[in-house]
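task queued by scheduler; priority normal; single chain, no ligands, no partner chains; default sampling; output format set to structure tokens
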Amino acid sequence: MTSRAHNPAARWTFCHLFHHRGYHSRGDAKAVRKRHPGEKGLAVFVCPHTVGLFHLGHRPEALSNGHIDRQRLHNQAVRTERDYQR
């Protein structure tokens, strides 16, 4: 095994639709999140475009404030993906 096999920060795939690194397991994404101790509000979330990928990022303010729910956020992501494929 290479040293990359034991380093979760090195096991990722770039998501071209979301423009973020996509981690292949939630555990890898959480391990990378722990390496950013000064960043508050980082969340691990499922990629809305690619099955089996997890992203790391800040939650939208509207989601945190309750103005939109996760279903609406997902619908926006799916709509963006359809527009991107055209």
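post-processing summary
- The chain has three helices and four strands.
- The longest strand covers residues 42-46.
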